[in-house]
Amino acid sequence: MELIPALHDLGIDARPGEPDDLVDDHEVPCVAFPVSTDQVSAVLREANSRRATVVVRGHGTKLAFGGAGPAPDLLLDLSRCDRLLEHAPGDLIARVEAGMPLASLQEVLHASGQRLGIDEPVPGSTVGGVVATNLSGPRRLHTGTARDLLIGVTVVLADGTVAHSGGKVVKNVAGYDLGKLLVGSLGTLAVITEATFRLHPVPARAQWVSASAQPDALEPLLARLCHSQLAPSALEIDWPRDGVPTVAMLLEGSADGIPARIAAAQAEFAMPTTVDDDLDWPWQLPTRDVARGICLKLTCRLGAVAGIASAAHDLGLHVRGAAGTGVLYAVPGWTTPESLESGLRTLRDLTRQQGGSAVLLTAPALVRRRLDVWGPVNGLAVMRRLKAEFDPGQLLSPGRFVGGI
Amino acid sequence: MTQPAAPIAAVLEQLRSALAPGRVIDDPTQLATYDCDGLLHYRVTPALVVLAHDADDVRLAVRACAQHGVPFVARGSGTGLSGGALPHADGVLLVMSGFRAITAVSARDQRAVVDPGVINLDVSARTRPEGYYFAPDPSSQQVCTIGGNVAENSGGAHCLKYGFTAAHVLAADIVLPDGERITLGTTAPDAPGYDVLGAFVGSEGTLGIATSVTVRLTRTPAAVETFLVGFADTDSAGAAVSAIIGAGIVPAAIEMMDALAIEAAEAAVACNYPAGAGAVLVVELDGPSDEVAAEVAAAEQHCRDAGAFEIRVAANDEERQAIWRGRKSAFAAVGRISPDYIVQDGVIPRTALPEVLRSMAELARERGVRVANVFHAGDGNLHPLVLFDERVPGQAAAAEDASGAILDLCLEHGGSITGEHGVGADKAKHMPKMFTAEDLGTMQLVRCAFDPTGISNPGKVFPTPRLCGEVPGKRSAAHPVQAAGLGEVF
């Protein structure tokens, strides 16, 4: 039997792919819409028995992340697995299905004065998508990333096995933490169907202190701000292609505590500053078009942020990101594949010398097919062995991850 | 004709010639001194001890073990409380405590690179003059090693705000169970690829041995305020914790001790806690000065509203240390009021605290043992101390039974069988109560990717070994927690 009628027989909605369902420019023969972990398991068992390859989609906002793979046989759409399963405000935890939009979750949590400490630089993301891509924004300086907030997961392996790790308490060291492996795995190890997170209270007040710096004043400024005892929630930089760098610090806290911290921050900046309730730019990637644009992710040791940002600026990139953690996003003005390739090579050399990496975060499939998206990877041999154990048939998102995994 | 040498004899011979003199111990008397870690009632004498002083020692020892199919166990200072460093009778124990240089510190990068045998507190001692410290602070931090912290994903009182070891490790050099050396992670965050290092941290020595660890350094806060609060009972102390956390305050630490634990601490270190208290809270707030001042005022008010009869704010570092002394000495202190005791480590959702404490008192009463309670109240991590007298027939068994029943109680409330001490040898048997065969089978896939022959700290974490290459269990029975009527599947 064909896959679609077989899924229908299992009570699972499925249909042939439509123009909106393209994956890396490939048409997909089948899109399945499971509504629960059990249905995801049933779909994967069915796919596994046919050796069908599977790509997972939430809202499809980040399908251009990672390498471009061959045409998948099945697109597993989790947008109907979108329930909030549990929110325990007193315990500061929430358990959600992977297809729940992050913004919807935040809305529910805000009503209790809480939030999940993961920002949404790509609007429209689902919770599962944010975890699978390890997306983060400015507040990672304060609350970390998905790896630090995910305390339990339910996953479905390629053969349909349903497995859990962690739990719903923040402190828990029983068994291996599979969640860590799943964060940023781009759907190549297993399908995340449920996630449990620790939450944080929403502070009473938030203010940004920002300043435009001369390029040669950037490193001393960042050094002062990183070393300050201001406990900022974010320390961001934005350096447009034809401009000077702007540095912005987010202070969050109590109504009584914030004014003195703003004054102390202004003293650390030691240059003219502006104070705002909110800023637009730090919450967005420097590209408006994540699906079709090109965006690099540059990382480095903390003390090299100014140097890397400056080098990227000199190469003609618009640089923006977390200056307080060493994670920058950069959009090139390069127009030919050759210039992209050589620019990437230069940035890989530079970032590697500073303990980091240069990854092609997102780009058109044509570009990702031609270039090495990832660059050098530590521990690749172990990663291949993990993939072979979890997905021996290489059915989950083949070709999307490091080393062609 | 001579018999073929036993594998361990072959390892001994190989390491005698490969390692520096004195690094290999096979004298039975000396071996016997390594027969346990901090969990004293499990004792196994290793067949061989290697005193590792550098990464080459570790690599050579592990490679020899791999060649001859001999199990190995790494041990730091041996402070672990779950028997994670319990030796294997036919195996090699690698003692890492001599492998202890802090090889690099960069305040600007907020990083330090340290050997696995470095003492936890030594990292902070070295970096504090520059305004930084290593945040994970297990109570044993004066003696425990970074390698042990990595293996156990150690927490401590302050992980409520600052997170566990996993949040503070950026990169590590690792010797895999086949003797291969790899580097995981980078100095920068978000190294491309799977977060294998994240899974390695907390794997209790079952995936290999770290030979160098790059840790995150945390800026020392501008202000630290510590205060001790006396309550009539644990219910009112618990209500104060709920009110503080409900108000959106994230304390650096918030610890509770009950009457019996206070009695023990008084007997041991004369900590001079409020007289007549049925429970005390140790609350610590840190951060920018004005924020801390506002939070202290609010937290004190919440405590008074919940019925606190005494609040004592530490005026200086000395007074702060005095407050912490009672709390940090609590485990050892119960030795003053009971000849024998079991230290338990379980986790519950914090809001279930009053109910769990009542049930715990009841189950102890039923079994004729006493339970002293010390816990990280902010995150529901309980450390019940089950007191008993081994000389009284039946008491040891009753205590063991009570200790196990406490873990059932934790699971019933959606918690965990260990918050920070690890599974080790002690709790492997409890794992199937918390995880399905499929859950455990899936975790074992990770083990198979690292250690297909199962020689790296065998017998720990998992109740039964798994033959790699096996197809994961296909049974789809109800989750054990659910089947036992203990609670909903998480």
Structure classification of chain B:
alpha+beta
Shape, per Cα inertia axes of chain A: globular
Please write the CATH class name of the largest domain in chain A: Alpha Beta
| DSSP strand content of chain A | 15-25%
Please report the number of helical segments of chain B. Answer: 17
**Share of helix among residues of chain B?**
25-40%
How is the biggest beta sheet of chain B arranged?
A: 8 strands, antiparallel
Count up the helices of chain A: 13
* Rg on CA atoms of chain A, Å: 22 Å
Question: Spans of chain A with pLDDT under 50 lasting ≥5 residues?
Answer: none
| Ends apart, CA distance between termini of chain A | 30 Å
How would you describe this structure in keywords?
heterodimer; A: 405 residues; alpha+beta; Uridine Diphospho-n-acetylenolpyruvylglucosamine Reductase, domain 3; Vanillyl-alcohol Oxidase, Chain A, domain 3; 2 domains; 8-stranded antiparallel beta sheet; 5-stranded antiparallel beta sheet; 13 helices; 19 strands; B: 490 residues; Uridine Diphospho-n-acetylenolpyruvylglucosamine Reductase, domain 2; Alpha-Beta Plaits; FAD (chain B); flavoprotein (chain B); oxidoreductase (chain B); FAD-bd_PCMH-like_sf (chain B)
